[in-house]
Design brief:
Subcellular location: Cytoplasm
Number of domains: 1
CATH architecture: 3-Layer(aba) Sandwich
Number of helices: 8
Keywords: ATP-binding, Cytoplasm, Kinase, Nucleotide-binding, Transferase
Family: Belongs to the guanylate kinase family.
Pfam family, one: Guanylate_kin
Low-confidence stretches: 1-17
Enzyme class: transferase
Strand content: 15-25%
Radius of gyration: 17 Å
Length: 199
């Protein structure tokens, strides 16, 4: 395992090393950011995708260690106390967090590191990593977002209502981010992300 590199040591070596960059992808639940991320990684295997830790249950087809690290609430809280997360948030009754060590090491060794995280976590990253590039994925309309969430058929009516209420708040925060991309046509949105990352 590579040694943990404190943020200070990364900053002081910036002139001597070709450092990578942190890319943050966020947007409301149901906007398609996970699907965009998977396609982006298929096209660009050189990107380092930071797998998040969560306390929610796996959805059908999700694989532990690939889609998320699925852990218990008590284990998450233990890791949180130990300072193991670069950012974390609670969303729809579950915790989500980004493991600190792997991200810092990959940036140090010149990788483009991509995080797909919730708004609260993205704000934490902006505060601690001002040089991070932040991208906000928007739906073409709120009605379309609701349709996408309902079409997944994975949530109770109560959970859908919570997600939609949260989505309204998140969409209002889009201007806080460096780039806003509307996921209306999937290929267009994916190409827009590629243009931002590799122009």
């Amino acid at each position: 395992m590579m040694p943990v590199l404190p943020i200070q040591s990364i900053a002081t070596t910036e002139e001597r090393l070709h450092l990578g960059r942190l890319i943050v992808l966020t947007g409301p639940s149901g906007v398609g950011k996970g699907t965009l991320m998977r396609s982006l990684l298929k096209r660009h295997p050189e990107l380092y995708y930071s797998v998040s830790v969560t306390t929610r249950s796996p959805r059908p087809g999700e694989i532990d260690g690939k889609d998320y690290y699925f852990i218990s609430r008590s284990k998450f809280e233990q890791l949180l106390t130990e300072g193991e997360f670069l950012e974390w948030a609670e969303f729809a009754g579950n915790y989500y967090g980004t493991p600190r060590e792997a991200v810092l090491n990959q940036i140090h060794f010149g990788k483009l590191v991509v995080l797909e995280i919730e708004l609260e976590g993205a704000r934490q990253i902006r505060a601690s990593f001002p040089s991070a590039l932040s991208i906000f994925i928007l739906p073409p309309s709120f009605d379309e977002l609701e349709k996408r969430i309902r079409d997944r058929a994975q949530d109770s009516e109560e959970a859908i209502a919570r997600r939609l209420l949260r989505a309204q708040e998140e969409i209002q925060a889009a201007d806080e981010f460096d780039i806003q991309i509307v996921n209306d046509d999937f290929e267009t949105a994916l190409n827009d992300i590629e243009t931002v990352l590799f122009k």
